[in-house]
Design a protein that fits this description.
With 399 residues, this protein is mainly alpha-helical. The chain is 73% helix and 0% strand. It has a domain at 64-106 and 273-399. The protein has helices spanning 8-27, 34-54, 67-78, 83-106, 114-146, 157-177, 184-204, 207-222, 227-247, 253-258, 269-287, 297-302, 315-349, 352-367, 378-398.
Length: 399
């Protein structure tokens, strides 16, 4: 995986991908800085279009998987209770699908998907450095001690935690796969990046991010051929983090609440709101289960008579309410196809790339969808594009 970062033929693409993802991670969710992310996105799009034109505008069938879904959202705009917000969602989705389409149709056939995976790891480290520069180590450990969530000044704690949890999983795969191949200095730098990522995740007190990291790590561990090596590696990694957090009096209250959602005395206000959103979402879905209430409809219907618009914070509920069973199926069926194809590849070749790709698709789409939207999230489509590239590369090599 590391080898592809420094190849002369790939360095230009990799720099652009890192700049794009790094800007997305750091600036993309702050209204004051989002312009930087948008500029780099435009540059990447223009470069990928240029590469696509050089490749005679060939189109891979996998890049069209989500066309039926976007058509459903366009239809949903027509009967949505509020058209302006629905158009914002549609525009965001189309932007994601343009990136998805261009990455699949412009990648170099001689490259493995590792260059795209590496860009996620490097971009996560850039975000960590940005956070560290903003708050300092004292700020991180103060947040851990006090239980106050870190990240509101930059973006949102859950957003920072999400990006770093995905990045950390890729970094774990890089370290594990190259443990005996890297120089001691480079191994030290990458391990340091992983430790900083996890400390920042803890300081955000993002429960969904911790679950993404733990579930993803567990699945990756189970998928390894050398299970003993994987266990030793995992124990060493998390022992360092545990010792550092214990030393700083890690406040566990917010995380322990996660595991007691069925005990009313221990359910936080945030948990109660989310439970109410799910219950109301099921009611709304039942009233129009086939095509739903229209693009972006949930928060307007739910918030009727309320000044603050409330989001569902759940991809499953959002799709079922807004687009019914049809829209839900049009989104998740292509993902199922991508997952099954990569599972088949994994059982045939047991490669590290395929293992971490499966982990990323599962935790990013299936797990994080419980507490956030994935159907118009840029990184989610970037990960799906990598998963498709893995399929294409595998079958091209078999010919």
């Amino acid at each position: 995986m590391i080898d592809n970062i420094v190849r002369k033929k790939t360095i230009k693409v990799n720099i652009l991908l890192v700049l794009f993802l790094g800007a997305l991670f750091i600036f993309g969710h702050n209204s004051n800085t989002v312009i930087y992310s948008n500029i780099l996105t435009l540059i990447l799009f223009l470069y990928l279009i240029y590469r696509w034109m050089k490749q005679k505008l060939t189109i891979n069938k996998y890049s069209l998987l989500f066309i039926p879904f976007v058509m459903m959202l366009i239809l949903g705009v027509l009967y949505s209770p509020e058209s302006s917000y629905s158009i914002v969602i549609l525009t965001s989705l189309i932007s994601c699908l343009i990136l998805f389409f261009l990455i699949i149709n412009t990648f170099d056939n001689k490259l493995s998907p590792s260059i795209y995976l590496s860009s996620i790891s490097v971009s996560g480290f850039l975000l960590s450095l940005y956070v560290l520069n903003y708050y300092g180590f004292n700020g991180l450990f103060t947040a851990i001690q006090s239980g106050e969530r870190l990240g509101y000044e930059i973006s949102q704690p859950n957003t920072i935690g999400y990006y770093l949890s995905i990045s950390s999983l890729v970094t774990v795969a890089i370290i594990y796969d190259h443990w005996n191949k890297l120089s001691k200095l480079l191994l030290l730098i990458i391990t340091f990046a992983l430790v900083i990522n996890i400390i920042i995740i803890i300081s955000t007190y993002s429960r969904s991010s911790v679950l993404i990291l733990l579930i993803g790590f567990l699945i990756y561990l189970i998928m390894q051929k050398n299970f003993l090596k994987a266990i030793i590696f995992s124990l060493l990694t998390f022992s360092i983090i545990l010792l550092m957090t214990i030393y700083n009096n890690f406040n566990l209250d917010r995380f322990t609440d996660t595991f007691f959602l069925f005990d009313d005395s221990l359910v936080s206000a945030s948990d109660q709101v989310r439970q109410n959103l799910i219950a109301r979402g099921i009611e709304l879905f039942s009233s129009n289960p086939i095509i739903g209430h229209g693009t972006g409809a949930f928060r307007y219907i739910y918030s009727e008579g309320i000044l603050r618009l409330v989001a569902s914070h759940n991809n499953y509920i959002e799709l079922l309410v807004n687009h019914g069973i049809i829209g839900f199926s049009l989104y998740y069926f292509p993902i199922l196809v991508i997952l099954l194809a990569n599972i088949k590849i994994y059982f045939k070749e047991k490669s590290n790339n395929t293992a971490i790709i499966l982990v990323l698709v599962f935790v990013d789409i299936i797990v994080s969808g419980i507490s956030s939207y994935t159907y118009y999230r840029v990184l989610s489509y970037y990960i799906l594009a990598i998963a498709i590239i893995n399929i294409i590369v595998y079958y091209k090599e078999k010919k």
